[in-house]
Amino acid sequence: MQRRHWLKLCVLAAAAPRRAWAEAQEIAVIVNPARDEGRLGADTLEAIFRTEMKTWPSGGKIIPFNFPARHPLRVAFDRAVLHMSPDEVARYWIDRRVRGGERPPRQVESTELMMKVIAKLEGGIGYVASSDVTDAVKVVARVRDGEVHAP
Amino acid sequence: MGLRRVLPWACALAALQLRAMAAHAEGEAPNGKPAPPVEGGGAGAAPAPSPEDAEVEAILASEAEVDATRDRALQLYGFFDFGLQKLFVPRSSFLYSSIGTNATTFMFGNLNLFFDAQPRDDWRTLVELRFTNLPHGEVESFATPAGGQFERIDRTARDSTSPNGRNRVLFGSVIIERAQAQWTASDAFGVIGGYWFTPYGIWNLDHGTPTLISLLLPDSQVREYFPLRQLGLQALGVYNAPPYQLGYHVTVSNGRTLGQMDLDEDKAVGARAFFASRAGSSELKLGVSGYYGTYGEKEATVTSFVPYETRLEQTISATEWGVGADVSFDRRGLRLRSEGTVHRVEFERGLRAPLDFGRPDARQPDRYDLDAYALVAYRFSESVLEPFVYFEAFHGPSSVGDTTLVPSAGLNVHLAPEVQIKTQAARVILRNLVTEGSAAGGGNDFTILTSRLVVSF
Fold it and tell me: Which secondary-structure segment (H or E) carries A42?
């Protein structure tokens, strides 16, 4: 019984704050400033990050970027936008591969790189912590408390 | 080392991890690289990128921590499954001698490799190969009162390249599951050329053991109400109006052919339309599919050696069509799948195909094949367990009854996103519900227990 308590404590210590941190952090969904889109809704973001929607409503190819699978921002973003846990996301892309579906979004590993590619690429879309946003990008949605909000 | 000694160390490590996260919250990159994601796997040399790609690559390549070639390279991935299976076929049934055994047996199922390359943003090639030991061991013919011999295929060969030269090796086969090139103009229009899976229903698109819920295939797949794969062209596209999506596929192909070439100009045509709607964690998808085509056989006979003359004669000529409808619904752990398929075959007078396992002069009748199934699966929250129930009914002319019912239940254990253990038990009930003069009164009913360990990589 005592061992179980130890295990539970360790799991909670490792997992709970990570999730709490990610959910408490406001995420800004960013695009290139040249884009016409002023705001993007939750449904559109889901279609984009499932790579089902590959063309911007105003024209041009959408180039979505993700953080790696276990990145805290990625986990929070996937929960809010795709409604999936990391394991569910992994299964989703395995299923898509077996079906011969579109590839997942490309990945970048740092906020700095995310900002750089979005600022550079007219079709780019990604996300960073709101506190990291600069004028080099345009915010089209915010993820707060596990939900997508207008910018 | 006892658990009591290990746990405090584990907690200390967890605390260190928290510190790393706190540092990240202040703008630092997290320590160490995250576990490689399943979704982006692949390796190989990058083909020449388009100008847009080159721009992305230039940015990414400037950062040492990013593998800049990763997404454009040839990606190699796949899945593998093997399992344990047991049949319970009555020894009095002729099916028992056809199968040969009820013994518990390990099964090597699939080893499928995908070669996925996207040399340009608008071009993609996808080749899926299945490696198998088939047809080794398959029974090719039975001994018959007319003097036929029992024959089992032997695909072993003496390994003359080995130093002792006496050992034998089993050489397998490669099945081309698909080999296709796709050009995408926009979401609304793209074209696939090559050898592709027929876009119909749910099963044929899921097609792989990691993705399918049930191990047992529905009859529409087993007996190919629609050809499972076709050689030709396919136009496809979607109209996105999130949370709704409307999509289509239109196909033109050789259709069902006995050889590699189409023997006539009547190309097979098909279409599929689907509608998808998403709301939060719920997703509903409805689809309808259709197919129309002809198939036949022509036999050549040498009528004279000098002068050399031949005669070409049509021996089989059939027209077929199929229609299907499917629905899938997902909500959190719940997964519902159902499809129904109708297939019609009509032969020209005097040009009927021979009957499988029948007398040499027996011929196939014109027929309808009907198949429907429903599957309900539920993945318990925070659990690896996904039980499911499956029920199928199909109807068509057969020597074991015109109607088959398959009640079934199973349990899939998701050990990790890449690893599943799938189990299923099914009772196959064979009845003559329409045809007069019953040949099946329950004596051929049987049970299947099957399982697979499935690993995606």
Answer: helix A42-49
**Which of A13, A54, A71 lies nearest to residue B14, judging by beta carbons?**
A13
Interchain contact B417–A (C-beta under 8 A): yes
Task: Report ipTM for this prediction.
Answer: 0.82
Q: What is the pTM of this model?
A: 0.83
For position A106, which CATH number holds? 3.40.190.10
Cβ neighbours of A120 in B, within 8 Å: 55, 59
Task: Tally the domains of chain A.
Answer: 1
CATH 2.40.160.10, chain B: domain bounds:
77-134+172-456
CB contact under 8 A, A95 and B206: yes
Do the Cβ atoms of A6 and B7 come within 8 Å? Answer: yes
Taking contacts as CB-CB distances below 8 angstroms, the residues of chain B near A43 are 242-243, 278
A32: in domain: yes
The verdict on residue A119 lying in a domain is: yes
Q: Which residues contact B40 (CB under 8 A, 6 or more apart)?
A: A103, A104, A106, A107, B70, B71
Whether B110 contacts chain A with CB within 8 A: no
Q: pLDDT tens digit string along B90-108?
A: 998 888 888 888 999 999 9
In the CATH hierarchy, which fold is given to the domain comprising B77-134+172-456? Porin (2.40.160)
Contact B35 A69 (CB under 8 A): yes
pLDDT, position B49: 52
pLDDT in tens, B404-420: 999 999 999 999 999 99
State the residue range of the domain holding A111. 23-149
User: Is position A142 within any domain?
Assistant: yes
Strands A63-66 and A124-129: parallel
Of A131, A112, A134, residue with least CA distance to A144: A131
Q: Is there a domain that residue A114 lies in?
A: yes
